[in-house]
From TrEMBL:
Membership in a protein family: Belongs to the purine/pyrimidine phosphoribosyltransferase family. Xpt subfamily.
InterPro entries: PRTase-like, PRTase_dom, Pur/Pyrimidine_PRTase, Xanthine_PRibTrfase
Binding site for xanthine: L20, N27, K156
The keyword Signal belongs to this UniProt entry's keyword annotation: no
Annotated HAMAP family: XPRTase
Assembly with partners or alone: Homodimer.
EC number: 2.4.2.22
The keyword Magnesium belongs to this UniProt entry's keyword annotation: no
Protein name: Xanthine phosphoribosyltransferase
NCBIfam families in the record: PRK09219.1 (NF006671), XPRTase (TIGR01744)
Organism: Staphylococcus caeli
Role noted for this protein: Converts the preformed base xanthine, a product of nucleic acid breakdown, to xanthosine 5'-monophosphate (XMP), so it can be reused for RNA or DNA synthesis.
Catalytic activities: XMP + diphosphate = xanthine + 5-phospho-alpha-D-ribose 1-diphosphate
Length: 193
């Protein structure tokens, strides 16, 4: 996605050689037009897969996930990082470590929203080590549903996330692949259009 790549190049802030801050358009302030295009792109990639649910984790994955869900015309479901007191039903849960925040959260999804008939597309803002996507896939497995694919907005290709997801048998689609954050500069994987 050229527009996404341009936004990352222009507005992304390299914090160090492993952290890229994109608060200005993805995970603090949202560029709604860009997220609409992200949702459309994921739809084009997975439109023949019979998707019944889009699954993400709160909070940064919600914007791209809801736009994809709108295009697929299916519900957007997000795993909560804490079980609210209003959630009285059984839940599926997984431990997920955040690379950026260096914290581990137990995320939950109510069993009333996910079951064995669902074909799930997992959407997330970043792919670093793959922990979020693997955790969400674990929740899908607990529901005896099917993960059709993983849609990633920005992949840090120099980290092992893609390899871990593919080793787990998951199909990964990343819209923007970052090759390096060396020297306070974002470099992209060459095969990106």
């Amino acid at each position: 996605m050229d527009l996404l790549k341009q936004k990352v190049a222009a507005d992304g802030v390299v914090i160090d050689e492993k952290i890229l801050k994109v608060d200005g358009f993805l995970n603090h302030q949202i560029d709604a037009r860009l997220m609409y295009d992200v949702g459309q792109t994921f739809y084009e990639q997975f439109k023949n897969e019979g998707i019944t649910k889009i699954l993400t984790i709160e909070a940064s994955g919600i914007a791209p996930a809801i736009m994809a869900a709108m295009r697929f015309d299916v519900p957007c479901l997000f795993a909560k990082k804490a079980k609210p007191s209003t959630l009285k039903k059984a839940v599926y849960q997984a431990e997920i470590h955040s690379f950026t925040k260096n914290t581990t959260s137990t995320v939950v999804v109510s069993d009333e929203f996910l079951d064995e008939n669902d074909r799930v597309l997992i959407i997330d803002d970043f792919l670093a080590n793959g922990d979020a996507s693997l955790g969400l896939n674990e929740i899908v497995k607990q529901a005896q549903a099917t993960t059709v694919g993983i849609g990633i907005v920005i992949e840090k290709s120099f980290q092992p996330g893609r390899e871990r997801l593919e080793e787990a048998g998951l199909t990964v689609s990343s819209l923007c692949k970052v090759a390096s954050l060396s020297g306070n500069k974002v470099s992209f994987v060459e095969d990106e259009a």
